[in-house]
Amino acid sequence: MREFFEKLGKIDRRIIYLIVAIGVITPILFKARLPIKPLPEVRQAFDYIESLPESSAVLISIDYDASSMPELQPMLYALLRHVFRKNLRVIMLGHWPLGVPLGQIALEDVAKEMGKKYGVDYCFLGYRPGIAAVMLNLGKEIRSVFASDYKYTPLDSLPMMRNIHNYNDIALLIGLEAGSVGDFWVQFAQARFNQKIILGSTAVITPDIYPYLQAGQIVGLIGGLRGAADYETLVNTPGPASIGMYSQTVVHILVVALIILGNVGYFVLRRRK
Amino acid sequence: MKREIPLAITFISGFLLIVALFIPHKPFGTLQETFNDWYIIVSGFTMILGIDSLLLHNWNKVKRRKSDWPYALALIMSFFLTFLWGLYSIVYEPTHNPFAPTASFLKYFYKSIFVPLQATMFALLAFFIASAAYRAFRAREINSTLLLFSAALVMLGRVPEGEQAAPYVFGIISLLFAVYFFIEASLLTAGFLKYLYIALGVLLLAAIYPVGKLLLAYLPKIADWIMNIPQLAAKRGILIGVALGGIAMSLRIIVGIERTYLK
Amino acid sequence: MTSVFWTWVAAFFTLSILSFLYKDNPFYKFAEHIYVGSSAAFYVLQLWVFDVYPKLVGGFQYKVGIEKWILIIPAFLSVLMLTRFIKPISWLSRWAIAFTVGMAAGLGVTGLLQGFLVPQVKATFLPFYVPGTSFWNSFYLSVNNILIVLGTVATIFYFYFSREHKGALGTISRAGITFIMIAFGASFGYTVMARVSLLIGRMYFLIHDWLHLA
After folding, report:
1. B221 and B141 together in one domain
2. Which of A44, A239, B33, C125 is the most exposed place for a label (fewest CB within 10 A)?
3. Does C177 sit within 8 Å of B143, measured CB to CB?
4. Residue C105: which of B112, B147, B250 has the nearest Cβ?
């Protein structure tokens, strides 16, 4: 018995890796699906967007890069489909230099798919350094930060931007967050200018965002791949997040099982000492 | 002079922003905007500060033929090739922006080289965390047991159909610990402790069915509750403390007590 | 055809990084060094495309009067920042760094005070009795409110009173550690979720985009 558990304790980490890999790959290969029931905080975000009047402006901020792309990119696609379906206008910018293009790739993809026109239905401003300073100055005049879009076209030459000057003209801000930029959005856009905010976040930082939700500082929270799958379900466009949920469930059960197994070994060996 | 001027600059810029929070009118409001605008321009340059030492360090490796020098060379070459490709997009392509969707830099280099590298680098962590969970996550005492249970409830409660698996997981844990208690009891001489262990074992076995039923029905709600009540309370407490610390640190910097950044 | 080629390139780099799981090897090291080198170049390009060109070059081109000439100040500070690369006058870069540090500190104080501390403390003043649809509903909501208040206060006590945790302070600290452990457990659970999601994303790429198996 003791020997068995000692051996089990020294099991090659690569065997664990292999088990995890199989747990992830098998459901994807077999296209296995699980029914998804959206969380209340995701539904709250969805309902808020539903309630916006047609052609309101929505500012989307890309505050992540490829290191959290699998979680936030499907979320962005689902959100864009929803926003465009509601005929809202999208202004996109970002605070993570390495990830900003990811936002633009998704924006162009979905705009093409839904027949939206650049400059009329959506535009892409790009990136400026200085996070909080950018947010504060956007509250006065967007043109003071972004005189032009990413193609260096002056903002006034874009029809949709003509009457948009600051947060007063923006109905909703959606921040997709992998770090602390979301905190800045809340601190500077919400607290100072009363901007309505929905945050979509990686699972790592999601627990830290719940205090904002309870305090009413944000009007919705979409957390992690689960949140993305919830949103895909709400918008009725199942994509990579919904497909990934089966693997997610399998590996979570696997990790819990590994923790139990590790602890059983620990108790048995401790007992015999 | 080498010290006084920077300290004065820090004080003026930091102090102005605090004044502008309370008196957002002229001249402070407009001054704040101007300072913000300068900050947007200048802070971009901090991004490239370490690059010279990165390149120099690797160039020295190549020059001295240190072990692994071919990788250092690959690093330097990838720096210059990336840079040149971007430059090509800036100068010769119609949008003059390598990050435009039509630019070759974005279409090929970014999508097919940069993104897979960065994304996969972080995907490795899934394997490491699974292995760590097996090796290091031990219920040593009451606090770590609490942590473990909360983690398990959230992990299973936050995935679709996790509640289907949870009763089995709980059943197995209870069974294992019941067996553990019975073995402990069998090794003890008759006494209070022996009967306590037996009672605990029986209790665990008896709990399997009702608790399993409960988990099946309520697990997602339990996970919701953990996230929205106790988790939120502790996070708020921690973050309030972090905020107080951050404010104190910032004030020390503004008034010039904290000056490590001048080293 | 080109897209097939570039998908293979992406798959090659994905597999090179994953090969680290077996053991450290030249493919992994090669890919890792390329990543570091190219991200450094990336920052330089971004600096030009999204900062210097639109803000400085564009500013000098399109702005007029005082607004134009005042840009000399940030331009000067930016140049000072670059003196860091030139040893004998590198001390000059401190002026620029002092400016960014001062601004960051000022933004930090104001943001945390107005945007975090005040609203979060306010949101903790919750009623201990909440009328509900039924007795149990009301009981549940009330207990939740009490727990939020208690948990927040106890956590602050646990962390921020460095005196020995004895007596009443000891009791409330112990309550604090209970809440903290539940929170850390939840964070661990969510971290597992995040890491697994990243792996799912890469595997989906390999299976779906590269091998077309699903």
Report:
1. yes
2. C125
3. yes
4. B250
Shared domain for B157 and B104, answered yes or no, is no
Same domain assignment for residues B108 and B183: no
| Residue B186 sits in the same domain as residue B204 | yes
- Please name the member of C35, C112, C187 whose beta carbon is closest to the beta carbon of B118: C35
| Residue of chain C minimizing CA distance to B133 | C192
State pLDDT tens for residues C178-189: 999 999 999 999
B119 plus B180 within the same structural domain: no
Domain boundaries, chain A: 2-32+248-272, 40-238
Q: Burial code of A23-58, b = ≥16 C-beta within 10 A, e = fewer?
A: bbbebbeeeeebebebbebbbbbbebbeebeeebbb
The answer as to whether B26 is a domain residue is: yes
Residue C149 to chain A, least CA–CA distance (Å): 12
Residue with tokens 């401790």: A270
> Per the CB < 8 Å rule, is A183 touching C120?
no
Average pLDDT of chain C, as a whole number: 92
Which chain C residues are closer than 8 Å to B11 by Cβ? 102
pLDDT over 70 at A272, yes or no:
no
The residues, ordered by sequence, that sit 6+ positions from C144 with a Cβ below 8 Å of its Cβ are B225, B228, B229
CA of C97 to nearest chain A CA: how many angstroms apart?
A: 13
**Segment 213-242 of chain A within 8 Å of chain C by CB:** 214-217, 223-226, 240
Please report residues of A whose CB lies closer than 8 A to that of C40.
none
Residue A271, pLDDT > 70, answer no
User: Do B233 and C91 contact (CB within 8 A), yes or no?
Assistant: no
Question: What average pLDDT does chain B have?
Answer: 92
More confident residue, A228 or B172: A228
Of C30, C116, A102, the closest CA to residue B78 belongs to C30
Task: Give the 3-state secondary structure of residue A180.
Answer: coil
Number of domains in chain B: 3
CB contact under 8 A, C199 and A25: no
Q: Write the class of the CATH domain A40-238.
A: alpha beta
In a domain, residue B246? The reply is no
Q: Which residues contact A251 (CB under 8 A, 6 or more apart)?
A: A20, A23, A24, B126, B130, C192, C196, C199
> Looking at residues A230-253, what average pLDDT do you find?
95
CA distance C91 to chain A (A): 23
Contact C62 A247 (CB under 8 A): no
> Would B262 be classed as within a structural domain?
no
The H or E element that residue A91 is part of is strand A89-94
Q: Are residue B32 and residue B78 in the same domain, yes or no?
A: no
Q: Please give the pLDDT value at position C162.
A: 59
Quote ipTM for the complex.
0.93
Structural domain span for residue B68? 50-135
Q: Count Cβ atoms below 10 Å from residue C24 Cβ, excluding itself.
A: 10
